[in-house]
Structures are given as C-alpha cells and as structure tokens.
UniProtKB/TrEMBL annotation:
<feature type="region of interest" description="Disordered">
    <location>
        <begin position="1"/>
        <end position="31"/>
    </location>
</feature>
<comment type="subunit">
    <text>Homodimer.</text>
</comment>
<comment type="function">
    <text>Catalyzes the transfer of a N-acetyl-glucosamine moiety to 1D-myo-inositol 3-phosphate to produce 1D-myo-inositol 2-acetamido-2-deoxy-glucopyranoside 3-phosphate in the mycothiol biosynthesis pathway.</text>
</comment>
<dbReference type="GO" id="GO:0008375">
    <property type="term" value="F:acetylglucosaminyltransferase activity"/>
</dbReference>
<feature type="binding site">
    <location>
        <position position="343"/>
    </location>
    <ligand>
        <name>Mg(2+)</name>
    </ligand>
</feature>
<feature type="binding site">
    <location>
        <position position="246"/>
    </location>
    <ligand>
        <name>UDP-N-acetyl-alpha-D-glucosamine</name>
    </ligand>
</feature>
<dbReference type="Pfam" id="PF00534">
    <property type="entry name" value="Glycos_transf_1"/>
</dbReference>
<feature type="binding site">
    <location>
        <position position="167"/>
    </location>
    <ligand>
        <name>1D-myo-inositol 3-phosphate</name>
    </ligand>
</feature>
<dbReference type="GO" id="GO:0010125">
    <property type="term" value="P:mycothiol biosynthetic process"/>
</dbReference>
<comment type="similarity">
    <text>Belongs to the glycosyltransferase group 1 family. MshA subfamily.</text>
</comment>
<feature type="binding site">
    <location>
        <position position="307"/>
    </location>
    <ligand>
        <name>UDP-N-acetyl-alpha-D-glucosamine</name>
    </ligand>
</feature>
<feature type="binding site">
    <location>
        <position position="319"/>
    </location>
    <ligand>
        <name>Mg(2+)</name>
    </ligand>
</feature>
<feature type="binding site">
    <location>
        <position position="147"/>
    </location>
    <ligand>
        <name>1D-myo-inositol 3-phosphate</name>
    </ligand>
</feature>
<feature type="binding site">
    <location>
        <position position="316"/>
    </location>
    <ligand>
        <name>Mg(2+)</name>
    </ligand>
</feature>
<dbReference type="GO" id="GO:0102710">
    <property type="term" value="F:D-inositol-3-phosphate glycosyltransferase activity"/>
</dbReference>
<feature type="binding site">
    <location>
        <begin position="32"/>
        <end position="37"/>
    </location>
    <ligand>
        <name>1D-myo-inositol 3-phosphate</name>
    </ligand>
</feature>
<feature type="domain" description="Glycosyl transferase family 1">
    <location>
        <begin position="220"/>
        <end position="385"/>
    </location>
</feature>
Length: 445
C-alpha cells in the first residue's frame, strides 16, 4: 500500500461515486434501475451545486455509449468496460469486478495523485470496487448499501430467489472495510450493526430526499385530463419495478375485494400499475395480467411503462391513493414522491416505509398481507382523503435532497479527518479479525 497521504478535514473537491450495476443515466422503474439511480442523480447534482465535482463510474452496457458523458455541469458519468456490453445479468457481475476496478484505477492514474478526495460506493458490488480504490488512493470509503441480502432473504416473496451467500460475504467485507456506512433509516442502521457487525460509530443515518419542486400538489382534474382518466374515477396507483418483492399482486387482490364489497364501485375503480419488470419479476407482468383476468378486474387495470419524472408526477397527482405493498423496502422513494404530490399512501408496515409514511397522518401502514386489510386501509384513506393529503405533503416536506447532500459532505469530511488522524487502519485490522478469526489469514492480510 502506498504511503498514506495526509488529508485535511475539509469538504472534498472531487468524489468518485461507484455504481457498477446501474447507471444514473438509466430510466428508473425497470430492470436494475430504481431508487438507487434517483439517489445518485439527486445527490450528485447537489454536490456539484456545492462546487464538489462528481465522477460516477458505471459499467458500459452498450457499445453505443460514449466513454464519458457530462450528466450535468460538475457531474460526469464514466463508462467502464467490464465484460460484454449486453446480456450480462447482475448476478454475473461479481466475476467482472476485477476488470471494473482496473478501469477505475486506470482512469484515476491519468491524473495527478490526490485526484479524488473520497470514494462513495452504492450497493455491495460497488463497495468491493471502492474498497480497493480507497486503499490505493488513501482516501475514505463511504458506502451506502441500498439493500441488504440478509434482510431481503428474511422477507422473501413467493417466487423470489434468495440472495446468494457470495453476496452476504461480499456485504460483510464491505461493512468491515468502509470508513462510513450510510443508512437510510434508523432501522437500516440497526440492521447493519446487528446482522453485519457494523461499528455503530461509523454507521450514520442520512435520510434520502424528494424533489419538492417536481413532485408538488397540483390540479387533480387537470392531471386526470392529461392522462385520460375520468374525473369521477377512484384511482389506486402502484409505481415501481414489477417484481415479487414489490407485490403489485396484493393491490390487485385488494381492488377485487373492494369491488366484491361494493359492486357500485365497478365502473369507477381504476388500478394503475406504472413500471416494468425486473430481476426475478420478468414473468410478473404476464402473471399480473393473468391474475387480473382471474380476479375479474382486467378491465379495471391499466399497465403503464416506466414514466419520466414529470409525467410520473401527473400519475401521483391523478391518484386517489398510492399503494406500496412491498414485502420489504430499504426506504421507498415512491411513497415519499406520492405524498409530496399530495397523495396519501397505503403501504406495508416494513423497513423504510415506516419512516417514509406517517401512519394515520400521511397515509396508513398495513401490518398484514391480507388483501382484505389493504382494502380496508384504502377505504379508510378514501374516507379521509383531504385531511391525509395535507398531512402527506407536510410529511414529505420534511425530507430534502439538500439535507441529504449536506449530511453526506459532513460524513466525507469527518471520515477524511479520521483517516488523517490515523484512526482508520487500526479499525480495519479489528474488523478483519472479527470476520476471519484465523490467525494466518490476518497475518497474510
Ligand atoms: N420511477 C420512475 N419512473 C417509473 C417508476 C419509478 O422514475 O415509472 C422512480 C421513482 O420516481 C422512484 C424510483 O424509481 O424514485 C423507485 O424508488 P423506490 O425507492 O421506490 O424503489 P426501488 O427501486 O429503490 O426499489
């Protein structure tokens, strides 16, 4: 390892953001692109506005992609060649991490030493890359997991594949190595400490934000006209990648239950499903369509492809209720965006949704996976919609990407100060000792 460069505890000038498996240039709502992409875009923009340059390293997934794209002034997306452009699934990417890391290190080597002040990795694959870059560049590694395999495996949906042991091990390594772990919520921070042995002093909670200018309340009738939805319709909206984890099937079943209980609703009820398939949900749209037919509500369900943010805001505004019935969510940006548009949310009482929704104030959290419980919660929200709509906007207004960016800059500076003081290496040895309690392994390291 090269000699440690002394860093002053100042705000960084240039951040290397690593996002191996999905690009901030991708449209979220399909495949591997979702909340993490939105997070990286929004945070990078805010860092650039604070005079901090951001380079986002992501895998090149098409030969058409230029090697370098300026996403916005101060934010550069760098496409790294690692494996074939197309046809490589996320589960195959661990074998490409060496190639990816080499690409990142070679790019940095073209500059003067000290080009980057910090590495911020997103998701465990990127954490593996950031780990090596951190050691080579002697800068802090900040890691945001976004999802955790152990948590995901504990709440698997029917038809969902468990996350492999290789991912669990990879996550444990990154948790041991990172100078700061950024959790979306207190619960995620606890999960990192309890299930992954994270050091609580290096684990901090930084809530994600929402763009309150883009996602703002508006004229519901106008939004409905723009989308071709009748003014008197009762619209229940699901937004997200179609995968078992997100459970759009539960919304369909709840809608069918509502029609059974109140046949007069038949002509007015509409269920909108916005998003495209992802991962083990590749078969899901067809299965969802079949389910709608089986439930006798096929004529009440509209499937819509992923929408760009401004159009998505129209969908939130047009909805009476946004429904987020996920088996688990590390946060659930969709819930926050809907509320920012003044639309109350019915969501599963799990993970980050407990923070994202203020139960009884901005929507209703449902503790059961029984469609009847969802139907009852939706009815309860419809009955108090005006009050909950005001609560929804109020609750969402407490979140902001500006605050997220400020907290991250503070974390970058604190980690750099700790590294300059020489605290980081000793901590790493301890962490590795805990991971591999074999004396020989520790010495070899
Ligand atoms: N999204 C979008 N268009 C769509 C569907 C989703 O832009 O058609 C975005 C949405 O605005 C949100 C993100 O995808 O910011 C999904 O994030 P969330 O945290 O809800 O779920 P994740 O994808 O992280 O599981």
């Amino acid at each position: 390892m090269p000699a440690r460069r002394l860093l002053s505890p100042r705000a960084p000038r240039r951040v290397a953001t690593v996002s191996v498996h999905t690009s901030p240039l991708d449209q979220p709502g399909a495949g591997d692109a979702g909340g993490m992409n939105v997070y990286i875009v929004e945070v990078s923009r805010r860092l650039a506005a604070r005079g901090i340059a951001v380079d986002v390293f992501t895998r090149a997934t098409s030969s058409d992609l230029p090697p370098v794209v300026e996403m916005t002034p101060g934010v550069t997306v760098r496409h790294v060649s690692a494996g074939p452009f197309e046809g490589l699934g996320k589960e195959e990417l661990p074998a490409q991490l060496c190639a990816f890391t080499a690409g990142v290190l070679r790019e940095e080597a073209q500059h003067e030493p000290g080009h980057y002040d910090v590495v911020h990795s997103h998701y465990w694959l990127s954490g593996q890359v950031g780990w090596l870059a951190r050691d080579r560049w002697s800068v802090p590694l900040i890691h945001t997991a976004h999802t955790l395999a152990k948590v995901k495996n504990a709440a698997l949906a029917d038809g969902d594949r468990p996350e492999p042991r290789a991912r669990v091990i990879g996550e444990e390594q990154v948790v041991a190595e990172a100078d700061r772990l950024v959790a979306n919520t207190e619960e995620e921070a606890r999960q990192l400490v309890d299930h992954y042995g994270a050091d609580p002093r290096r684990t901090l909670v930084v809530p994600p934000g929402v763009d309150l200018d883009r996602f703002r309340p508006g004229d519901r009738a106008a939004a409905r006209r723009a989308l071709g939805v009748p003014a008197d319709a009762v619209v229940l909206t699901f937004v997200g990648r179609i995968q078992p984890l997100k459970a759009p099937d539960l919304l369909l079943e709840a809608a069918a239950r509502m029609l059974e209980d109140d046949p007069a609703l038949r002509d007015r009820l509409q269920v909108h499903v916005v998003g495209a398939p992802s991962g083990s949900g590749l078969e899901a749209p067809r299965r969802l369509e079949e389910l709608a037919v089986r439930l006798g509500i096929a004529d009440r369900v509209r499937f819509l492809p992923p929408q760009a943010p401004d159009r998505l805001a129209l969908h939130y505004r047009a909805a009476d209720v946004a429904v987020v019935p996920s088996h688990n969510e590390s946060f659930g940006l969709v819930a926050l965006e809907a509320q920012a548009c003044g639309t109350p949310v019915v969501a599963a009482e799990v993970g980050g949704l407990i923070t994202a929704v203020d139960d009884g104030v901005s929507g209703v959290l449902v503790g059961s996976r029984d469609p009847a419980a969802y139907a009852a919660a939706i009815r309860a929200v419809l009955a108090r919609r005006a009050l909950l709509a005001a609560g929804a906007r109020r609750h969402a207004s407490a979140f902001s990407w500006e605050r997220t960016a400020d907290a991250l800059v503070a974390a970058y500076a604190a980690a750099a100060a700790e590294m300059a003081a020489g605290a980081a290496p000793a901590r790493r040895e301890r962490a590795l000792g805990a991971l591999w309690p074999v004396a020989g392994t520790q010495v070899a390291w």
